[in-house]
């Protein structure tokens, strides 16, 4: 109950900050209108380059190495969202080798709020807070293999 109350207070604060921001046109941050739409997962970054598909080319972006990884976040004008992403696990084998297994998908819906530099979500513990920068949103995990460093989304 305490977590829900704290989240709702944070969400309300962000909504108020967004609603009360000035319109000086300086181009910093995202407007709520700019967020509305579908954003595609374009990178799942890990701490080391891997060649999981054995094509002779290594990449720190798992999407380059595994066809089964994808995801989208759709932001609606009524401040609701839909989230879908491949569920995958990274397993350490031996000698710096890893295996990625895709198994189904993760889905979530709920409400979102933004202050122009980040987006917070209600209804998902998976998403956390996304940082807005340029034309992309990033969820920074900051973990070393076998975990993920970051997820990057770009608007369609």
Structural description of this entry:
The chain is α+β, with helices and mostly antiparallel strands and 156 residues long. It has a single domain (2-155), classed as NlpE, N-terminal domain (Lipocalin), CATH 2.40.128.300. 17% of the residues lie in helices and 47% in strands. It has three helices and nine strands. It has helices at 2-19, 32-35, 62-65; strands at 37-50, 59-61, 71-75, 80-92, 98-114, 118-122, 129-133, 136-140, 150-155. The protein has an eight-stranded antiparallel barrel. The radius of gyration is 17 Å and the shape is elongated. The termini are far apart. The model is unreliable at 1-27 (pLDDT under 50).
Mean pLDDT: 84
**What amount of the residues lies in strands?**
over 45%
**What is the CATH first-level class name?**
Mainly Beta
Number of strands: 9
> How many structural units, i.e. domains?
1
Largest sheet: 8 strands, antiparallel, barrel
Order of helices and strands: HHEEHEEEEEEE
Instruction: Estimate percent helicity.
Output: 10-25%
Key descriptive features of the protein:
alpha+beta; eight-stranded antiparallel β-barrel; 156 residues; Lipocalin; disordered N terminus
Question: Can I get a quick summary?
Answer:
This protein has helices spanning 2-19, 32-35, 62-65, and strands at 37-50, 59-61, 71-75, 80-92, 98-114, 118-122, 129-133, 136-140, 150-155. With 156 residues, it is of the alpha+beta class. The chain is elongated, with a radius of gyration of 17 Å.
């Amino acid at each position: 109950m305490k977590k829900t109350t704290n989240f709702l207070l944070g969400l309300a604060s962000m909504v108020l900050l967004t609603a009360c921001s000035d319109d000086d046109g300086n181009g910093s941050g995202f407007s709520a209108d700019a967020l509305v739409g579908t954003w595609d997962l374009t990178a799942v970054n890990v701490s080391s380059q891997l060649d999981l598909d054995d094509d002779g080319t290594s990449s720190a972006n798992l999407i380059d190495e595994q066809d089964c990884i994808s995801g989208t976040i759709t932001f609606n004008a009524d401040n609701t969202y839909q989230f879908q992403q491949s569920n995958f696990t990274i397993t350490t084998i031996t000698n710096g080798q890893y295996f990625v297994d895709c198994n189904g998908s993760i889905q979530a819906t709920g409400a979102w709020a933004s202050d122009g530099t980040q987006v917070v979500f209600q209804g998902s513990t998976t998403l956390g807070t996304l940082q807005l920068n340029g034309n992309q949103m990033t969820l920074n995990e900051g973990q070393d293999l076998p975990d993920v460093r970051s997820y990057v989304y770009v608007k369609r």
